[in-house]
């Protein structure tokens, strides 16, 4: 594999997720580096503040119950991570659409 190209692709996913989740009330999406295992790539950390109407666990559960299932890493008490490393080409957009839908629906009170 061309490791620099792979890492650049991961970074594109992280930046897309951060931009796509910006502006949702009560939600912050930010890039953190390195990965949870110390691997040399970024990931997106989604943090729900106290004003967000659902808990992190409720959001994670909703993502898991979707079709296709969206698996995220639970971190801290109010945050979860999106890791591009396990995705196939184009699946980062599926993840973004699912996470955005769950978060915006909750933020609107649905």
Descriptive key words:
4 strands, 110 residues, alpha+beta, 41% helix, 3 helices
General description of the model:
This protein has 110 residues and is α+β, with helices and mostly antiparallel strands. The chain is built from three helices and four strands; from the N terminus they run αββαββα. It has helices spanning 3-21, 56-64, 91-107; strands at residues 27-32, 43-48, 73-75, 79-82. A four-stranded antiparallel β-sheet has the order 1-2-4-3. Strand 3 and strand 4 (79-82) form a beta hairpin. Helix 1 (3-21) runs parallel beside helix 3. The mean pLDDT is 93.
- Number of helical elements: 3
Strand order of the largest sheet: 1-2-4-3
- Percent helix, as a range, is 40-55%
Question: Strand tally, please?
Answer: 4
Structural class: alpha+beta
The separation of the N and C termini measures: 44 Å
What number is the mean pLDDT? 93
Parts with pLDDT < 50 across at least 5 consecutive residues? none
Biggest beta sheet summary: 4 strands, antiparallel
- Output the radius of gyration: 13 Å
What order do the SSEs take from the amino end to the carboxyl end, as H and E? Answer: HEEHEEH
What portion of the residues fall into strands of 2 or more residues?
15-25%
How would you concisely characterize the structure shown here?
By secondary structure, this protein is of the alpha+beta class. The protein has helices spanning 3-21, 56-64, 91-107; strands at residues 27-32, 43-48, 73-75, 79-82.
């Amino acid at each position: 594999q061309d490791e620099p190209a792979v890492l650049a692709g991961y970074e594109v996913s992280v930046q897309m997720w951060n931009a796509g989740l910006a502006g949702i009330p009560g939600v912050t999406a930010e890039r953190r580096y390195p990965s949870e295992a110390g691997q040399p790539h970024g990931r997106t950390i989604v943090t729900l503040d106290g004003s967000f109407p659902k808990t992190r666990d409720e959001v994670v559960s909703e993502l898991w119950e979707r079709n296709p299932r969206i698996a995220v890493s639970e971190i801290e008490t109010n945050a979860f991570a999106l890791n591009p490393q396990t995705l196939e080409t184009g699946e980062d957009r599926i993840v973004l659409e699912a996470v955005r839908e769950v978060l915006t629906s909750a933020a609107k009170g649905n």
